[in-house]
Amino acid sequence: MTPAMKNVTKTIVLLPGDGIGPEVIGAAAGILETCAAEFGHRFELPEFPIGGTAIDATGAPLPPETLEACKTADAILLGAVGGPRWDALPLGRRPESGLLALRKGLELYVNLRPIRLLEPLLFISPLKPGRAGRIDLEIVRELAGGIYFGAHGIETVNRNVSPAATDSEERGFDTETYTTGEIERIATFAFGRAESRSRRLTSVDKANVLASSALWRKTVTRLAAGHTGVTVGHMYVDNAAMQLILAPEQFDVLVASNLFGDILSDAAAGLVGSIGLVPSMSCGFGPPLYEPIHGSAPQLAGRDSANPIGAILCASLMLRETFGLAAEAEWIERALDHVLARGFRTADIAEPESSVVGCSALTQLIREEMQASLEQVERYGWGV
Ligand code: IPM
Ligand code: MG
C-alpha cells in the first residue's frame, strides 16, 4: 500500500431505495465519511428516492430529479429496490423498472460483479474446504440490452388446441436481441479485465439454441484474435452453472448476457457464502453506478440485521475503480477482513462461535478498525 497523495472532492449520489437499502447505504456512507475525514477528501452525499419509496412519494419509480442528479454525479451508490408492497403493480410501473430505467438512462452497459471468497469466511462457503480453496472471479454482465430490454408484453391469442376451438388465451413474450456492437463493447471490457488479471476469459452463451447467442459467440471469437494474450473459452450457460459449483477456481473473468449474468451471479454469490457479500459496478457512458447485488430483503428491513458488506465493498470498489484511490480501498477491505477475523458477523454469515452483531454495530467496528489501523500506519508506515 502507498499513501494517497491527493485530496479529492466528489459528489456521490445516494439512492437508498427500499427494504434494507437505507440500512446498507447508511453503512457504506459511514465508511465513506470515515475515509473522507481521515484522508482529507470531501465527499458530498446527497440522497434521492428510487424504487417503491419513490413510487410512494412521487408516483414514479425513477423521478426526473433523481435521474438528473445521477447524470451530474461523480458516482452513484444504490441500495436495493422492490418489495411485496408494490408486487401488484404491472411490469413497467414496479420499483424494479426504476432501476432498469436508471441503467438505461445512463447507458450503463457494463455490470462488473467481483466474486471473492474472503479469507476469514472460508468455512461459510457451501463447498467443501478443498473445493472452495480459491474463488476469485469476476462476472462481466451485459446490462443495457438483451431480454431485459427487448419487446415484451402479454397479448390475447386464439387458443390453439383444435382447429375448431374459438376461445382465447393469453400469451406472454419477451425478446432477446443483441447487435454486434452491443456484444463488441461488453466483450471489449471483459477482455480488458482479463488482461489485468489472470488472462483467462470464459464467454457464456446458449449458442446451441439461440441465434442471439450464436452472434455473441461469433463476435467474441472474432475479438479474441485481437487479444492473443487472453485464453478464451466458450461455455453453454447450463454447463457454466454446473462448472461454477464443481470447479470455480477454473474461472477468472466470465462474460455473459444480461439475463445469464444475472442468474450466474446469484449462483456465484452462493459459493462465497452469502449474497450479502457481493458488490457491483455498472459503467458505460454516464456516471458509474455501484450497488450490492442483493435485493431489498423486506423480511429483514428495519431490524438492523442486514449484512452491509456488499454495500461497503461497493464503496471500496468505487474508490479504487472510479476515483483511483487504491490505498483507501485496500485500507477499508483490510479493516473489514480484520473485523471478520475477530469473529464479528451478521446473522447470514455467522458460524457457531461467531459474535453476531447487527448492521450498524458491524459498520461501527469496521470504522473503528479503519481508524486504529491508520494510527498504526502513521506510527510505523504503510506495508505493515
Ligand atoms: C440485480 C437484480 C435486478 C436485475 C432486479 C432488481 C431488476 O436482480 O441487479 O441483479 O435483474 O438486474
Ligand atoms: Mg439479480
The number of distinct β-strands equals 14
Which CATH-level-2 architecture of the largest domain? 3-Layer(aba) Sandwich
**Major β-sheet, in short?**
10 strands, mixed
First CA to last CA: what distance? 9 Å
Write the element-wise H/E pattern from the N-terminal end onward.
Answer: EHEHHEHEHEEEHEHEHEHEEHHEEH
CATH class of the largest domain: Alpha Beta
Proportion of residues in helical segments: 40-55%
Strands across the major sheet, in which order?
2-1-3-12-11-4-5-10-8-9
Classify the fold: give the CATH topology of the largest domain. Isopropylmalate Dehydrogenase
Radius of gyration: 22 Å
Q: Please, what is the average pLDDT?
A: 95
Poorly predicted segments: none
CATH H-tier superfamily of the largest domain: Isopropylmalate Dehydrogenase
How many distinct folded domains?
2
Account of the protein in words:
The chain is an alpha/beta fold and 384 residues long. It has 2 domains: 1-106 and 287-384, Isopropylmalate Dehydrogenase (3-Layer(aba) Sandwich), CATH 3.40.718.10; 114-273, Isopropylmalate Dehydrogenase (3-Layer(aba) Sandwich). The protein is built from 12 helices and 14 strands. It has helices spanning 21-39, 52-58, 64-71, 95-105, 129-132, 180-196, 211-224, 237-246, 258-271, 309-321, 326-341, 359-380, and strands at 9-17, 42-44, 75-80, 110-116, 136-142, 152-158, 168-174, 200-205, 231-236, 253-256, 281-283, 289-290, 344-345, 355-356. Strands 2-1-3-12-11-4-5-10-8-9 form a 10-stranded mixed sheet, with helices on both faces. Helix 8 runs parallel beside helix 9 (258-271), helix 10 (309-321) runs antiparallel to helix 11 and helix 11 (326-341) packs across helix 12. The radius of gyration is 22 Å and the shape is globular. 47% of the residues are buried. The mean pLDDT is 95. The site of magnesium ion has 3 residues, from helix 9.
